[in-house]
UniProtKB/TrEMBL annotation:
It is found in: Secreted. The lineage of its organism: Eukaryota, Viridiplantae, Streptophyta, Embryophyta, Tracheophyta. GO terms for molecular function: hydrolase activity. Keywords: Hydrolase, Lipid metabolism, Secreted, Signal. GO terms for cellular component: extracellular region. The keyword Acetylation does not apply. Its main location: secreted. This is Lipase-like C-terminal domain-containing protein.
Length: 462
């Protein structure tokens, strides 16, 4: 009887979680479509009243192109500029600076694949996932082409003398770390002069550095951090993605893409039997583990981190979020109104999570109490700085002024009272905190972080 009640509760929880996530996804999708339709209608109605004004560039002033770009890298289920119409993953933060890039990377592809895509998005050329990796993971070696066309390159002059600032949200922060390591390892064929110094600074917003216990709640097996339970939220997600990619409806794919094109899941290439193979788990990214969720388990993050360094000439910052507090020694959600409805249940579940005692812990010294504070998606301990398998240099700060003068090679981290999507998607929800945080980040990039020569800001005489 007890087992029956537990099974019933788990099924009810799975149903509620599925409905909540589906409704929120539909809300974001419909909001983006509505905004685009409204904009198109407005342009059509007022087109005749719009006059064009040509501004002459003062040659004595610096141009925007002189600035090193600030690249905003989205997290899981995210999207960049060009997807979802005019809807912004970063809540319009990219409008705060004149030289901000927002690449569109695979929303569910592995951190490795996304790091490769990010390099070619910036430098240009055809995305090369690497011969050995592609064979091992069962997908095409080459992907989309960035050239002077529809998919153009965005910073072809990128090198050590023209470094870049990166700001990554959630898994996007780990993508940037993997990219920097690839640059240090000269891992891009045809680019033998890359180095870690191509990255000037990395700023993480709720960065997924050390994994999250939410992956186990959503269906990843804690035994290995690679496989999934037969019935779970991630299995439902997998089925939905397979069908979406197999149908390959151009209008939908142009609006939102999960990023698995290099796996050739479309009906045009896979056919009916290919669909059956994917659904059964015998083909596709889920068969080889080359997708984002295994990278977000604690075990997967440890595996990634074992090959990643914190470099001495790069500046590192991290904003770790949490929406929990302790009452009589028990960790609980810090209120109801301040937590997004989609995340409230997960905040509670993660604060109560206990790692199974019948399987080995993910690392020596693991304690449940260390992982109870969370933001509904990631554990706060995971977001401060890289900790596993070794602790990287770090410094906790309360105010941004606490880290002056800045020292490279150290992770400065600040804990912020917010849930995982507080500073993305909906700017109005974060209010003045949104502007303060992004203003501080961009100001730090533009005024306080230098390497070789002083930077000249737009409209400022050299």
């Amino acid at each position: 009887m007890i087992r029956w009640w537990i099974s019933s509760f788990q099924l009810a929880e799975l149903f509620i979680s599925s409905v909540v996530h589906l409704l929120y996804g539909f809300y974001v999708y419909s909001t983006a479509v509505a905004a685009d339709l409204s904009q198109a209608l407005s342009e059509c109605v007022f087109k005749s009243n719009v006059s064009l004004e040509v501004k002459k560039q003062d040659p004595s002033k610096s141009t925007v192109d002189d600035l090193p770009p600030i690249v905003l890298v989205h997290g899981i289920f995210g999207f960049g500029k060009g997807k979802f119409g005019s809807f912004s993953y970063f809540g319009g933060a990219e409008k705060k600076d004149e030289r901000v890039l927002v690449p569109d990377l695979g929303s569910l592809t592995s951190i490795y694949d996304r790091a490769r895509e990010l390099f070619y998005y910036l430098k240009g050329g055809r995305v090369d996932y690497g011969e050995q990796h592609s064979k091992t993971c069962g997908h095409s070696r080459f992907g989309r082409i960035y050239e002077q066309g529809k998919l153009k390159w965005h910073y072809p002059q990128w090198d050590e003398d023209h470094p870049i600032h990166f700001v990554g949200h959630s898994a996007g922060a780990q993508v940037v770390r993997v990219l920097q390591q690839m640059l240090a390892d000269k891992a891009f064929e045809g680019y033998e002069n890359t180095s870690e110094n191509w990255v000037l600074s990395i700023t993480a917003l709720s960065g997924a550095f050390n994994g999250t216990t939410r992956t186990y709640l959503d269906g990843m097996l804690p035994e290995d951090g690679q496989n999934m339970k037969p019935l779970c939220l991630l299995q439902l997600c997998r089925l939905g993605v397979i069908i979406y990619d197999w149908l390959d409806i151009p209008l939908l794919k142009a609006y939102y893409n999960f990023g698995f094109d290099h796996f050739n899941l479309s009906w045009r290439k896979a056919g009916l039997w290919g669909l059956v193979d994917c659904l059964l788990g015998n083909a596709g990214p889920w068969a080889t583990g080359d997708w984002i969720l295994p990278d977000l388990t604690i075990q997967g993050s440890i595996k990634l981190n074992s090959n990643l360094q914190t470099f001495p000439n790069t500046f590192y910052f991290s904003y770790a979020t949490k929406r929990t507090r302790k009452i009589l020694g028990v960790t609980v959600p810090s209120g109801i109104l301040g937590i997004h409805p989609m995340l409230f249940m997960r905040v509670l579940q993660m604060s109560l999570y206990r790692y199974p005692t019948d399987v080995p812990p993910p690392y020596k010294g693991y304690r449940d109490e260390d992982w109870q504070d969370n933001d509904g998606a990631l554990n706060t301990i995971s977001m401060t700085h890289p900790r596993l398998p070794i602790e990287h240099p770090s410094c906790s700060i309360v105010n941004d002024s606490d880290c002056q003068p800045l020292q490279p090679g150290i992770w400065y981290y600040k804990i912020v009272e917010a849930d995982h999507i507080f500073f993305i998607l909906n700017r109005e929800r974060a209010g003045v905190q949104f502007d303060l945080m992004y203003d501080n980040i961009f100001e730090r990039c533009r005024k306080h972080i230098f390497r070789k020569t002083s930077q000249t800001l737009p409209n400022e005489a050299p």
